[in-house]
Amino acid sequence: MQNVLLAMETAAEAATRWDVAFAALGAGMAAIGAGIGIGKIASSAVESIARQPEAAGDIRGATVLTAAFIEGVCLFACVICLLIKLL
Asked: Which of 40, 55, 79, 85 could form a disulfide with 23 if both were Cys (CB 3.0 to 4.6 A apart)?
């Protein structure tokens, strides 16, 4: 009987460790996705400003706003992953 209880406790501990691993993986993927997204936005903004310098102010404003939204989503994803890890 003790072996069965020990096996159940070990399985529960393993499940907890997998949850932590998946939470860390999710946070990492969110950060990588945000980095790629912001990189693409910056690349497109620089190209657009090079083609049309008189619209640089509008392009820069839209770029900063979009990057802020992406960072917000990444931060939200990291917080959710942290909550999964801690709870």
From this structure: 85
* Nearest by Cα to 81 from 38, 41, 36, 28: 28
Place of tokens 């770029």: 63
CB 78 within 8 A of CB 23: no
Query: What does the domain layout of the chain look like in residue ranges?
Result: 2-86
Query: Rounded CA gap, 27 and 19, in Å?
Result: 12
CATH of domain 2-86: 1.20.20.10
The pLDDT value given to residue 18: 75
Asked if residue 13 lies in contact with residue 74, where contact means CB atoms within 8 angstroms, the answer is no
Strand intervals (E) in the chain: none
pLDDT digit string, tens, across residues 41-70:
999 999 999 999 999 999 999 999 999 999
